[in-house]
Design a protein that fits this description.
The protein has about 450 residues and is of the alpha/beta class. Helices cover about 25% and strands about 20% of the residues.
Length: about 450
């Protein structure tokens, strides 16, 4: 392959840290993903800047924050002039391909993509915009999708995996390195999976989170599209039993994904491509799965933001590498290009963390910023705290809430210490960092919570 490795990105949807045994998870054994971490690098403090699909994916593929790349909430499109990772790698001699969920081209569903709108991915026959379908049937006349549960050939995860295997096989006849992105729509809801994964985990063995019955919750967590009242209310009949059943299916989806990763690794080895391929495993955001009584994502608790990132490339990344620095989705494009020693587009707003993958130290601020999506909110994660502000929410409700959690003393985020007198200096310091961040970006103040807009005005 010469000096340029192939690049394979495996991206799942809504997968929590606890689902992977290499991150300390105990419910699902994930040996194939674990092997990538053991023989490569694992990021322990990798966060998404927005815990919802579209804005997170946009930041990942452009290196820019949501309101700057345009796809700041679900079903919004990237700006047409955005420079994606595929554009950059293609300019550097890579063949580009994509299969699976994209979710950066408006509200089309499934919305099979064409080269004209695939943002740099040339092989895009199996790239679709959105949907979490469970069965795919390919005919000469086209591709049909449904929410019926497929079998080992037609279940979406398996079907997409086979498309990846077919792509790998074709590359053995090519003289260019490839960049291929496989975007698996699981383990996002609906939480159901094909046999035998559907019975692999007993609902009675599924633990209930310690915060499952937490009450009251802040308004932004209780109400709205992603709130508890709309997804898993306290008065839901047989609430615990239903939850255990959903969690067992979620675990089955994860196990199916891990086996799919195993198939891809085996194929790359058989084709003598494995060690010449830089492999990334990650997700777009996490899943609350009962924490604070919530399901899904797009609230402010850490579980939806703190996600896995694994990178394996023997040529430059020593096996067993652990990166503890705070890195975000907006940093991914520059980090990958830095590792490949390729020049970025110059439009990126993130940082290059690639030196940490090679045990080099560089100046680095351990901070990750929460950005607005469909709700005006902003915040910051640091090693010690999470601070966030929420503005006008769903249906015009003015939540005007703010939170400050001590990540060391209160890892389950049960106690909001924003108004504690002894935490006033911490709150002011972190607020100032949020304001400086948005001022440096030139963020439009109208996308931010009213409380932050006022503070920004007071500083000017």
């Amino acid at each position: 392959m010469g000096q340029k490795p192939n690049v394979l990105i495996i991206k799942t949807d809504q997968q929590s840290l606890w689902t992977l045994s290499c991150y300390g998870g105990t419910l699902v054994h994930t040996p194939h993903i674990d092997q990538l971490a053991d023989t490569g690098a694992k990021f322990t403090n990798y966060f998404t800047n927005s815990a919802v699909c579209t804005p997170s994916r946009g930041s990942f593929i452009t290196g820019r924050y949501p309101h700057h790349h345009g796809a700041f909430r679900n079903d919004q499109s990237l700006y047409k002039d955005e420079v994606t990772l595929a554009h950059v790698l293609k300019q550097n001699g890579y063949q580009t391909g994509y299969a699976g969920k994209w979710h950066l081209h408006g509200n089309d569903s499934p919305g099979w993509m064409s080269q004209e709108n695939a943002m740099g991915f040339d092989d895009c026959k199996y790239m679709f915009n959105s949907g979490h379908f469970k069965e795919v049937v390919e005919h000469e006349a086209g591709i049909e999708v449904s929410y019926e549960i497929g079998d080992e050939e037609t279940y979406m995860t398996d079907w997409l995996t086979q498309k990846a295997l077919d792509y790998f096989a074709k590359q053995t006849k090519q003289h260019q390195p490839f960049f291929y992105m496989l975007s698996i729509p699981d383990p996002h809801q609906p939480f159901n999976v094909r046999p035998p994964y559907d019975t692999m985990y007993d609902p009675q063995d599924m633990p209930i989170p310690s915060t499952f019955d937490e009450n009251p919750l802040p308004d932004w967590a209780e109400y709205g599209t992603w709130g508890r009242e709309a997804t898993f209310p306290l008065d839901l009949e047989d609430r615990e039993e239903r939850f255990r059943s959903l969690k067992a299916q979620y675990c089955g989806q994860v196990k199916c994904i891990d086996d799919a990763v195993g198939r891809m690794v085996h194929s790359l080895k058989e084709l003598n491509l494995y060690d010449d391929t830089l492999i990334v495993f990650t997700t777009d955001h996490g899943e609350y799965m009962g924490e604070h009584g919530l399901m899904y994502k797009n609230n402010l608790y850490e579980a939806a933001y703190h996600i896995p990132l694994i990178i394996r490339w023997p040529e430059k990344v020593k096996e067993g590498t652990v990166v503890d620095r705070f890195v975000a989705t907006v940093d991914f494009q520059q980090t990958l290009l830095g590792l490949l020693n390729l020049k970025p587009s110059g439009r990126e707003q993130g940082r290059d963390a690639s030196p940490f993958l090679q045990n080099e130290n560089i100046p680095w601020e351990d901070e990750v910023f929460i950005h607005p999506s469909d709700v005006p909110r902003t915040g910051i994660f640091t090693p010690s705290h999470e601070l966030a502000y929420v503005g006008t929410g769903w249906e015009g409700q003015e939540f005007a809430d703010h939170i400050l959690f001590d990540r060391m003393k209160d890892p389950m985020q049960m106690r909001n210490i924003f108004d504690d007198p002894e935490e006033r200096d911490v709150q002011k310091h972190l607020t100032a960092r949020i304001i400086r961040h948005h001022q440096a970006l030139g963020s439009n103040p109208e996308i931010l919570p009213k409380s932050i807009r006022q503070k920004m005005g007071d500083e000017q």
